[in-house]
Amino acid sequence: MANEEQRQWMDGEFGCQPEEGPYTGNGSVDVKGNPASKTHTGKWKACYSILGGEFCGALAYYAVGTNLVSYLTKVQGQSNVTAASNIAAWQGNCYLTTILGAFLADSYWGRHRTIVVSLTTFTFGMVLLTLSAVVPPNMHRSMATFPQEALSSLGLYMTALGLGGIWPCVPTFGADQFDDTDVSEKAQKELFYNWYYFAVNGGFFVASTVIVWVQDNCGWGLGFGIPTLFSVIGVVGFLASMRFYRYQKPGGSALTRICQVVVAAFRKVHVDVPSDSSLLYEMPGKESAIVGSRKLMHTDGLRFFDRAATITASDEASASRPWKLCTVTQVEELKIFARMLPIFLTGVIFNTAEACFPLFVEQGGAMDNHVAAAFALPPASLTTFTCVCILVLAPTYDGVLMPAVSRLTGVKRGLSELHRIGVGMVFAVLALAAAAAVETARLRSVEADAPAVSILWQAPQYVLVGVAKVFGVVGYIEFAYEQSPDAMRSLCQACSLIMVTPGSYLLSAMLTIISSVTGGGGGHGGWIPENLNEGHLDRFFWLMAALQLINLIAFVCCAATYKRKLPTT
Q: What residues are paired with 102 via a beta bridge?
C-alpha cells in the first residue's frame, strides 16, 4: 500500500508532487527501507549531523595536511625533498581514491554505508598518526623496521582511503535529504551546498589556526590527538541521526551499464534508429530497470548510442540480454555523463589557481612582512584571507548576493550552476592577474632600490581566490548533483573532485618546463630562481592568468552548447 501511494504522488507533472504529500517523490527510503516520510525524515533536521560531521572531518584532514611538512621534517627527520614527495603522493591519493568510494556508493553499498565505513577508516588512520607522534622514534637506523615511520605512513594512507568515500558522498548524501520533486525542498537544497562549503572551510580555519598552534607549541601527540577526537565525534554524531536520514538505494555498477550501452550500440552499428523515440526499448510502467533511479526521458543528440535501445527482430526473443538491448534510461545515463564531462574537464585549469598558493607564499617571503613595528606576519598565514572570505560569502550567498543578482537579471534563482562556475572562473582570472600586478610592482621597487613592498598587497589575490572558490567550487558540486543521473551522483561528484589532481600535476609540469626553458642552462634561474629578485615570477602569473582566461572561454563554449538533463519521470 505504501508503494502504491508513493507512485500516486509521483504522477504529477515532471514528477512534482504537492507539499502535503506523505512520501518523497524521488524514490528515497527511510532507515527501515520503507518510502521516506516527507514529515519525519530528511530536510535540515537530518543535515545538522551531516554538516557537523563534515566540519569535524575537515578539521581533522586540514590539521594533518596544513602542517604535515613540519612533522615529517622536524619529528621524523625526513629531508625537504622526501617530505614534499610524500605529501604530494598522499594528497594525490586522497583525490584518486574518490573514484573507488563513489563506485562503491553508487553500485553496492549506498552513500550512507560508504560514509560510515570511510569515516571509520579515516578515524583509524588518525589514531595511527597520533600513535606515531607519541611512540619514541627508532634511533637504530640499521634495524629493518621503524615503528614511527611505519605508523605515520600507514596512518596517512588509511586517511587517504577514508577520504575517498567521504568527499564524494557527504555532499551528495546531504543533498539527498531534500526532495527535488518538491519546489520548496528543492530551494532549501540550494542553501545546503553553501552551508556544506562553509562547514568545510570552518574546519580548515580552526585547523590552520588553533590546531597548528597546538602542534607547534604543545606537541604533536596533542596536535594529532585533538583532531582524532573530533573525528570520533563526527562519526558518533553521524550515526546518531540515522532515523532522520533519507536513503537512496544503490543501482548497481554504473561502469557496467555504460559498457553495456557502448557494446550494444556497436553490435547494432548497421541498424537504423527509429525517428519516433517511443519505439525505443524501455521498461513498462513507471519503474526504472535501474534500482534507485527514476526513468530518464529520451533526448536528441548522440544518436549513435540510441542503437543500444533500438529493438530488432532478434531482441524480441531475448529482451533480457543487457549487452545487446538497453533501456532508454540506461542510454540516457551515458549521454548525460558524456555531456557533463567537458564541463568537468574545465575544472583542471580552474583548480590551478589554488595550486599556485605555494608560489604566493614564496612571493610573500620576498616582501616586507612587518605589519607593525614588533610583529612579523608569516607569508603562509595570508591564506587566512581566503578562508575568511569563504566563511563570509558562503552563508550570505543565497540571502544577500542572489536576491541582488535576481533583481538585476529578473531571474528568480539568480544564477544557475553553470553561471556560478563561470563567475568563479572570472575571479580566478582576476586573482592571477592581481598576483602578477603585485609581483611587477615588487620587482620595480627592487630595481629602483625603494623600500620593500608590504606583504599586505597580497591580500586581494587571496581574497579573489576565495571568491572564485565560493562561486566555482560550490558551482561544480551543485552541477555534479543536479545534472547527474540518480544512480551516478557519487561518481559524478568524484569526477568533479578528481580534477584537482591533474590541475596540480599540470602546474608542476609547467613549472618544470618553464624553469628549463627560461633557465637557458647557463646557471640562470629563469623566471622562478631561488632569489625571486633576479627572476620574473610576474611573467609566470601573467601566463597562468592567460591560461585561466582561455579556460573561461572554453567553458563558455561548452556551457552554451550543454544540453541540460530533462525532468525525470
A: none
The most confident of 175-184, 332-341, 373-382, by mean pLDDT: 332-341
User: Residue 247, SS3?
Assistant: strand
Task: State the DSSP code for 37.
Answer: B
For residue 47, is it within any domain? yes
Asked if 13 and 568 touch (Cβ cutoff 8 Å), the reply is: no
With bands split at pLDDT 50, 70 and 90, how would you rate the model's confidence at 22? confident
For the chain, the domain total comes to: 3
Cell of 228: 582524532
Determine the structural domain holding residue 550 and report its residue range: 335-568
Contact status, residue 264 vs residue 326, Cβ threshold 8 Å: yes
CB of 540 within 8 A of CB of 528? yes
Please give the Cα distance from 502 to 541 (Å, whole number). Answer: 19
Q: Residue 262 — very low, low, confident or very high, per pLDDT cuts 50/70/90? A: very high
Beta-bridged to residue 454, according to DSSP, are: 368
Compute the half-sphere exposure of residue 173: CA atoms within 13 Å on the CB side of its CA: 32
Strand partners, 23: 37
Q: For residues 166 and 60, what is the distance between their CA atoms, to the nearest angstrom? A: 13
Same domain flag for 446 and 377: yes
Q: What DSSP string runs through 367-426?
A: SB-EEETTEE--GGGGHHHHHHHHHHHHHHIIIIIHHHHHHHH--SSS--HHHHHHHHHH
Dihedral, 100, 106, 109, 115 alpha carbons, nearest 10: 70
Q: CA 290 from chain center: how many Å?
A: 26
**Based on the domain organization, do 456 and 324 belong to the same domain?**
no
In this structure, which amino acid lies at residue 284?
P
**Same-domain check for residues 349 and 481:** yes
Q: What is the mean pLDDT of residues 425-451?
A: 93
Residue 567 banded pLDDT, cuts 50, 70, 90: low
State the pLDDT confidence band at 372, using cuts at 50, 70 and 90. confident
Instruction: Give the model's confidence band at 141: pLDDT under 50 very low, under 70 low, under 90 confident, else very high.
Output: very low
